[in-house]
Amino acid sequence: MRKSGVTIVMMLLFVIAFGASQARAEDHQLTVVNNSGTPVMVAVVWSGGGLDPAKLNPDERENVPVPSNLDSVKVTVTGTCRQAVETFNPQKVDRAMITCKDNVYTIVLAVTKPAP
């Protein structure tokens, strides 16, 4: 009985530690907004990871969790217009708005929440 109790306690500690590390790893939310008028594919990548490309329809937005310990994230946009790539610090930016003008995508970065 004692052995199973120790096992349960160890499993509980592992779950708590894993959950806490996951919560810290996804502190920042980046909102990607498609203002281009056409569907786009958006990829968000960083050193050692990233998210699979996601399709965003016109006027659609996607909240993307970004690890809080990063200082560089790259967003790539592809679609009917010419590709755009933007690299930025996610600790200073929380919104990326996609537009298409003169057949070229532009990624406009913004801060919608003041830093703590």
Q: In words, what does this structure look like?
A:
It is built from one helix and nine strands. It has 116 residues and is α+β, with helices and mostly antiparallel strands. Strands 2, 3, 4, 6 and 7 form a five-stranded antiparallel beta sheet that branches. Strands 5-1-8-9 form a four-stranded mixed beta sheet, with no helix packed on it. The chain starts with a helix and ends in a 6-residue tail after the last strand.
List its salient traits:
21% helix, 9 strands, 116 residues
Q: How are the SSEs placed, and which strands pair?
A:
Layout: H1 2-25, E1 28-34, E2 40-46, E3 49-50, E4 54-56, E5 61-66, E6 73-79, E7 84-88, E8 95-101, E9 104-110
Parallel strand pairs: 1-8
Antiparallel strand pairs: 1-5, 2-3, 2-4, 2-6, 6-7, 8-9
Brief synopsis:
The protein is of the alpha+beta class and 116 residues long. It has one helix at residues 2-25, and strands at residues 28-34, 40-46, 49-50, 54-56, 61-66, 73-79, 84-88, 95-101, 104-110.
* Strand elements, count: 9
What is the arithmetic mean of pLDDT? 83
Task: Determine the strand fraction and express it as a percent band.
Answer: 35-45%
Tell me the major beta sheet. Answer: 5 strands, antiparallel
The residue fraction in helices comes out at: 10-25%
Radius of gyration: 19 Å
- In whole angstroms, how far apart are the ends? 48 Å
Unreliable spans are 17-26
Could you say which structural class the secondary elements and strand pairing correspond to? alpha+beta
> What spatial form do the alpha-carbon principal axes imply?
globular
| Number of helices, counting only DSSP H or I runs of 4 residues or more | 1
Q: Give the SSE order as H and E letters.
A: HEEEEEEEEE
